[in-house]
Design goal:
The protein has a single domain, classed as Aldolase class I (TIM Barrel, Alpha-Beta Barrel), CATH 3.20.20.70. Helices cover 41% and strands 16% of the residues. It is built from ten helices and eight strands.
């Protein structure tokens, strides 16, 4: 199973609204919307639910984080081999809530390629996006931290970060998929992100905390087709 564009990735973080059975329920909603609309949707369940959720849905699942370590005596850490065994097709890397050293990001990207896993590196500006592009990950998601969870879409608040990052990334590696994140909550936000050159979006609280997650996700998906 591989990721296809245009793409919506839902990262459910560690919210109470996405714990346990609610995690699987949200994943099932993503699966339903993907089937009903034909839009490509991937899901990042809570880390403790990854194996369970990944084996209960037909849409791609990614880990929220991995560590730059090999299997072994690594209590409490998460290695790439374990997320692959769990059924994930890849992982988020360097999310603003879980920043990593550049050397560790590079190790994860290279090892993921060897294991046939995809990496989605989160960046916060053009400079970091350019550095990430040199590593040739599957995807780079541009997310200014100040706008995450704000309800103010980066595509409107700081559109130049998206367009400039897209240009910088594509100059170095045209194959890297560029996603837009932070504050994306409506179909219009998605549509504007695509106009700026993004090939999809990375979502979180706008869906997870919505009163009607399916209705919200359907609206978001409408920005793609």
């Amino acid at each position: 199973m591989k990721l296809k564009t245009p793409l919506i990735i839902l990262n459910v973080k560690a919210y109470k609204e996405s714990m346990g059975k609610r995690d699987l329920k949200l994943a099932k909603i993503c699966e339903e919307v993907a089937k009903e609309t034909g839009v490509n949707i991937a899901y990042c369940p809570q880390q403790v639910d990854l194996a369970w959720v990944a084996n209960e849905v037909e849409i791609p699942c990614l880990a929220q984080h991995v560590d730059a370590l090999d299997p072994g005596s690594k209590t409490g850490w998460t290695v790439l081999e374990s997320i692959k065994e769990a059924g994930a097709i890849g992982t988020l890397v360097n999310h603003s809530e879980h920043r990593m050293k550049i050397a560790d990001i590079d190790v994860i990207v290279e090892k993921s390629k060897e294991l046939g896993l995809c990496t989605v590196i989160c960046t916060n500006n053009v400079v970091v996006s350019r550095a990430a592009a040199v590593m040739k990950p599957y995807s780079i998601a541009i997310e200014p931290p100040a706008l995450i969870g704000s309800g103010i879409p980066v595509s409107k608040a700081e559109p130049e970060i998206v367009s400039d990052s897209v240009n910088a990334i594509k100059e170095l590696n045209r194959d890297t998929v560029v996603l837009c994140g932070a504050g994306i909550s409506t179909g219009e936000d998605v549509r504007e992100s695509l106009k700026l050159g993004a090939e999809g979006v990375l979502l979180a609280s706008g869906v997870v905390k919505a009163k009607d997650p399916k209705r919200t996700l359907l609206d978001l998906a409408s920005g793609i087709f």
